[in-house]
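Hi R.,

As promised, here are both runs. First protein below:
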Amino acid sequence: MKTTYLVFDKETGNLRVAGRSEWNRIMEENRRLPRDKRRFFIEDRIDAGKELDCMYIETTREDYDLWHAENQRNYRRRQAEKDVKFVSLEYDAQGDEQGSLSGKLSDGIDWEMVAIEKMDMEALIRALKEWRSWGVDILNYYLAGQKRSCTRQISQRYGVSEQTVRTWKREFETFVVGCLHVQ
């Protein structure tokens, strides 16, 4: 593996190749300096045909912080992936007449539909919030099985007549039917 050190030239401010001794001197100085006075380097590996080129490139502190955060994120992701194993549900279960894991894991619940229904409900709630301030309240009463008994409670809560609430409920039902047909 080849190692290349690119440092800022003090005179021009451009990057230039530094030798091993200069690199060691810079690293020694960096160890003694506080963080705000240090020089910052990012590491990059480039496949240069037959061998790998490991490059240390001097950069600004801001660029280093961004690079370091991304590097740490990738490291944590790789560590977490070590604990996870992905297996297809179509994988043949050995010694089993059912054949695939999907047959073994089936519990009679269509989890895909459960997830879709949950997403549809979340979308409906968002639409109701944008439509009317009382829309989500009426939905909650309907879901709790209180379609008929909620009129007085909503009337008191919003300071309107029960007749107004009945009109709201009809508007609500029309709106929900329209939302469900769009989805």
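And here is the second one, sequence first, then its structure tokens:
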Amino acid sequence: EVARGETDFASATEYACSAVRHGLDLPAPFAALDTGAYRDRGALYAVKWAEKTFESMVAETAD
């Protein structure tokens, strides 16, 4: 939904937090953090993922 512009990032973040709280599947793009890479690399992986996600979003809005 975020990639298609149907949901803003803040709303998707709130939904993802709710999903974690209630043991539900994470929505995209947050499902990317529910991987072996995150479990193996921890917070640094999550920070890099967030930076790349925001950079991508900024680049899309600049076009």
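A quick note on the second one: Residues 20 and 26 are 7 Å apart (CA to CA). Let me know what you think.

Best,
J.
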